[in-house]
């Protein structure tokens, strides 16, 4: 199996717990599926720097701070990825569709379909957002 591709993934979280999800655009694997925004980490780039770059490129948002939350590996038919999730509660700007993707602020996540690697994280994230016990 090939080495995993490192991907920086950001969870923008508002004060009320709502999080931003983006829909994968046409022409990409899993087009139409919803996910947390992010992208591949480039050579010589830190994960946090990749996250900041991707949010500017995809959504026009400047991430001011973010904390590492979890890391998950997932094998898709087209790629083996290592997803580095960060939670950000501080950013500047309003989300814009710079790559033609739809996006939506979600409380209890209701958009479908979700990208397979995202599904198990929703329950964990609800514990962070709403203080639910394990």
From TrEMBL:
Gene Ontology annotations of biological process type: DNA repair; DNA replication
A UniProt-annotated Pfam family: NUDIX
Cofactor(s) named in the record: Mg(2+)
CDD domains in UniProt: NUDIX_MutT_NudA_like
GO molecular function: 8-oxo-7,8-dihydrodeoxyguanosine triphosphate pyrophosphatase activity; 8-oxo-7,8-dihydroguanosine triphosphate pyrophosphatase activity; 8-oxo-dGDP phosphatase activity; 8-oxo-GDP phosphatase activity; metal ion binding
Domain Nudix hydrolase: 4-128
EC number of this enzyme: 3.6.1.55
Top EC class of this enzyme: hydrolase
Sorted UniProt keywords: DNA damage, DNA repair, DNA replication, Hydrolase, Magnesium, Metal-binding, Mutator protein
InterPro entries: MutT-like, Nudix_hydrolase, NUDIX_hydrolase-like_dom_sf, NUDIX_hydrolase_CS, NUDIX_hydrolase_dom
Keyword hit for DNA repair: yes
Family, per entry: Belongs to the Nudix hydrolase family.
UniProt name for this protein: 8-oxo-dGTP diphosphatase
The organism of origin for this protein: Noviherbaspirillum pedocola
């Amino acid at each position: 199996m090939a080495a995993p591709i490192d991907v920086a993934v950001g969870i923008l979280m508002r004060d009320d717990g709502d999080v931003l999800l983006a829909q994968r655009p046409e022409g990409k694997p899993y087009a139409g599926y919803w996910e947390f925004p992010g992208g591949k980490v480039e050579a010589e780039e830190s994960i946090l720097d990749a996250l900041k770059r991707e949010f500017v490129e995809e959504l026009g948002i400047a991430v001011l701070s973010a904390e590492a939350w979890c890391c998950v590996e997932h094998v898709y038919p087209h790629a083996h990825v290592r997803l580095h999730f960060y939670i950000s509660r501080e950013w500047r700007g309003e989300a814009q569709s710079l790559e033609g993707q739809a996006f939506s602020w979600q409380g209890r996540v209701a958009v479908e379909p979700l990208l397979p690697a995202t599904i198990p994280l929703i329950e964990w994230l609800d514990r962070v957002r709403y203080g639910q016990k394990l």
